[in-house]
Amino acid sequence: MPDSDPPPVVLRQFALDDALTHLDGEDEATSKWLSGGVSTEESVRRWIRSNEDNWSSNGPRFAFAIQTLAGELAGVIEVNVNHSHFAGLEPGDANVSYGLYPQYRGRGLATSALLHVRDFMIAKGVQRAVIRVEPENVNSIRLAERCGFDRAGVVTNEVGTKYLVFVDDLKVPA
Questions:
Q1: Rounded distance, CA 25 to CA 23, Å?
Q2: Average per-residue pLDDT in the chain?
Q3: What residue segments make up the domains of the chain, in order of their start?
């Protein structure tokens, strides 16, 4: 767990009104590590509509807007409970991915969001939170370690991308 308390954040569903802010927050790192390419306003709006559909049908993907207490949209954290969609996940696992807009990085907001989303995963019955990180993504590796995730190995997906796997056991002791 972090050495000091990270700043509080609000996690909420994305709204269509967030589309331009979300698009403006995308940079090279976000495109590379999170979205898989450069977004457009229309692709962000489709993604938000898809998020709305997932929330209303109870998953499997739950994307949260990370918002500061001042009301500023700072990034995204997503929980995907479809374990079969990700190399290295097992039944009861959820894949966790995240990204902050450049001006909000280095402030502890991702740490706070990752710690905060644990309660949501426990309520959903998730047994293990899993973060898969490409080895070059040093900041994401540090975040997983800072939040108490254990390094569990390496997996390779169907297109040959290698990921370091970090896990957090969410099972509540009996």
A1: 5
A2: 91
A3: 9-169
In whole angstroms, how far apart are CA 78 and each of 49, 139, 160?
15, 17, 23
Q: What local confidence, expressed as pLDDT, does residue 171 receive? A: 74
Q: Is 96 left (phi over 0), alpha (psi -120 to 50) or beta?
A: beta
The pLDDT of residue 69 is 95
Helix axes 109-123, 138-146, angle to 10 degrees: 60
Hey, which residues does 37 pair with through a beta bridge? none
Number of Cβ within 10 Å of residue 85's Cβ equals: 11
The CATH-assigned architecture of domain 9-169 is 3-Layer(aba) Sandwich (3.40)
Closest CA to 104 of 79, 139, 133, 135: 139
One-letter identity of residue 138: V
